[in-house]
Amino acid sequence: MAEKEMEAVKGLDLERYMGRWYEIASFPSFFQPKNGVNTRATYTLNKDGTVHVLNETWSNGKRDSIEGTAYKADPKSDEAKLKVKFYVPPFLPIIPVVGNYWVLYIDADYQYALIGEPTRKYLWILCRQTHIDEESYNFLVEKAKEEGYDVSKLQKTPQSDPPPEAEEGSEDTKGIWWFKSLFGK
Predict the structure, then answer these.
(1) Whole-model pTM?
(2) Structural domain of 171
């Protein structure tokens, strides 16, 4: 039986989607530090309608970050299917690495979101706060299940309250693991 096509949100309001999101849970990746904490993403709208992406995590007290650009895969479609392009700093020449970013669910107040992509290898639960209530979390897990995800692989990401300032532990290891974990390279 063929899996049904994964459904993305329609009519995402990009401006409302901007700002900081905390990673509540995700599928762990072989390359991601097992001890990555306080993982978060900050999105800023660019003048040309693309989105600046800053992903940060803290591992062993050190901040690790990577920046990229997100844009609609099909500008004519109203589906929230984005591509995210990262320029990977440690390698020369600098190569862009592109991955899929589909918003599978977002609540009416834009407070929590479920992000996935068509291979179902990656899944993220994001929230505007460092913590999400149990009911909303379980609801998102059910949504992921409906979209064909193996939710037993979800792992919660430790978040501290208040979250760290960007400067804390700012020795940056240049996002190698982000790049690898996002694209499974």
Answers:
(1) 0.86
(2) 14-183
